[in-house]
């Protein structure tokens, strides 16, 4: 038996690779405002090439610059997107609270109506903040309930 020619595989031509695109984008990343200025300040965008500049490298073909730019897409805000923002903010706040508690781990003695106990300083301050929030929130909830009742009475009478 004869062995296949192993050198023949290495001699075949490699496929032609298409040229890479230019590193400079064809259109600006930020839409241009009248007068060529970029929103938020900054440098002005240079005007598109004219028909007389077509022979130069980097020039635009005639008719290409005449096409209108696409309008930026505006996404609607949804409840789910608001939920994601809320969860992200809550996670950041919880992380900051965790760092606060870990860094303030010196034990302090707390006395309240004859009861006393030792807690880490961070935990004691966090509990005090939660109690302060509840002291504000409970009367607020009471006012909301009061307004709802008065609204119901007014809508029944009308």
Written account of the structure:
- This protein is mainly alpha-helical.
- 42% of the residues lie in helices and 8% in strands.
- It has helices spanning 7-11, 79-103, 121-157; strands at residues 107-112, 115-120.
- The chain has a two-stranded antiparallel ribbon with strand order 1-2.
- Helix 2 packs antiparallel against helix 3.
- The longest helix is centred in the C-terminal third of the chain and has 37 residues, at 121-157.
- It is flat and about 90 Å long.
- The protein starts with 6 loop residues before the first helix and ends with a helix.
- The relative contact order is 0.04.
- The mean pLDDT is 75.
- InterPro entries: LapA_dom.
- Residues 1-27 are annotated as: Disordered.
- Keywords: Cell membrane, Membrane, Transmembrane, Transmembrane helix.
- This is Putative integral membrane protein.
Task: Assign the structural class, choosing from mainly alpha, mainly beta, alpha/beta, alpha+beta, or little secondary structure.
Answer: mainly alpha
| Percentage of residues in DSSP E strands | 5-15%
Mean pLDDT: 75
Strand order, sheet with most strands: 1-2
Q: What is the alpha-carbon Rg in Å?
A: 35 Å
**Number of DSSP helices?**
3
- For the record, give the distance between the C-alpha atoms at the N and C termini, rounded to a whole number: 105 Å
The H-and-E topology, N to C, reads as HHEEH
The geometry reads as flat
Number of strands: 2
The biggest sheet amounts to: 2 strands, antiparallel
Give the low-confidence spans: none
Report the helical percentage: 40-55%
GO cellular component, one term: plasma membrane
Region (Disordered): 1-27
Organism: Kutzneria kofuensis
Transmembrane segments: 83-102, 122-142
